[in-house]
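Good day; I would like, with your permission, to put a structural problem before you. What I wish to show you is a protein chain and, alongside it, a tokenised description of its three-dimensional fold. Please examine both parts with care and let me know of anything in them that strikes you as inconsistent. Thank you for your consideration; the sequence and its tokens are set out here:

***
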Amino acid sequence: MDIVKTILTSWPLAIVIIVFAIRGSLKKIIENRLFSFKVGNVEVTFDRLLKEVDESLKDESPEINECSTTNKESKEAEETVKTKSPQEKLAEQKKARKLEVEEKERIYNIISEDPEKAITRSWSLIIRELKRLGEKNGLHRRYSMFDDIIYTLIRNDVISKNSYSALIRLYQIIVLVKTSKNGYKWTEEDAYSFYKSCRSVLRQLRRID
């Protein structure tokens, strides 16, 4: 457990692990190292991981992060922003808000019926955005997996350290959901909390052009 904690909290070490091991199967690594739980430990781990997601995003800039683009790409992004009219910016903001409202309504409807399904559906929103970014960085949208997408986005400096940390912890929760078939019943509160964290990450990913 100490080894895993060190890996997940040390950015340079995490990069090394990703480059040499992530494509071997991040899910298998996480399953083997973290999720041999009794029912009582599931809730504790879930809450801890969500807290770490929030902490990872606490200091994230609302603007394009320095680590998310190369210098050339940053200049191009700035030029693109400058050429947008106030009307275009307002239209984009309205579109983003409308999308989020629609997603929230769909997820909330599922939560009342099946909290576990709502959790996996919330994660699917993250995967969709990651695939969009992966496709822009040369990955085939249809066949790209989480391991490959994260590897590519980190290698190309597309996502920040904070976004990476949040994504890994959300992924750990999803693995926990899929492997905790030992009597733990996911609650509506669990699903609401997970969707809230996913929504914060989605906002960061959607700021990346």
About this structure: The chain has one domain: 2-71+101-206.
